[in-house]
Amino acid sequence: MKEAVELRNPTDMYYAQPLEDNLFEWHFTVRGPADTDFENGIYHGRILLPVDYPMKPPSVILLTPNGRFQLNQKICLSISDHHPESWQPSWSIRTALLALIGFMPTHSAGALGSLEYPSEERRRLAKISHEWVCKECGLCMRNALASKPVCDDNADVIEAQHLTTQISIKV
């Protein structure tokens, strides 16, 4: 699976791996984008792959309180199973993670699974996100991702921003 090769080494922005007993359920961790309400936040979630992935899109679910996406709900993006007509088999879990990072600071526009918390609350949630522990995989966000800050010229940051122009939040 190309996903395993593409994601075998964690970056300072994201990490994902399948559960040991289920290759169709991946847990991921993403860093909130710099210069946003989510900066310094560490967010954890699940990606559920359909049996016919990559021909059909995955489900993306956030587990960490964040003020942008509802918890334990499938997120409605054009890269998710809410809109299979938009999905491209060339996209990957990495693409989904970068798109998620890119969409965190955008307005929800009433999309399913979206929230519009005030900036102060999003910043508070980003700060306390480091203490969150996944009940399923046991990962503590304090120990997740590389500890170095993300640079604005990071290629992944640029790609995440670019993906927001190609992939949309669907209402």
UniProtKB/TrEMBL annotation:
Superkingdom of this protein's organism: Eukaryota
GO biological process assignments: protein modification by small protein conjugation
InterPro entries assigned: Ub_conjugating_enzyme, UBC, UBQ-conjugating_enzyme/RWD
SMART domains in UniProt: UBCc (SM00212)
Gene3D superfamilies tied to this protein: Ubiquitin Conjugating Enzyme (3.10.110.10)
Pfam families for this protein: UQ_con (PF00179)
CDD domains: UBCc_UBE2J
Residues in UBC core domain copies: 1-145
Protein name: UBC core domain-containing protein
Gene source species: Wuchereria bancrofti
Lineage start: Eukaryota, Metazoa, Ecdysozoa, Nematoda, Chromadorea
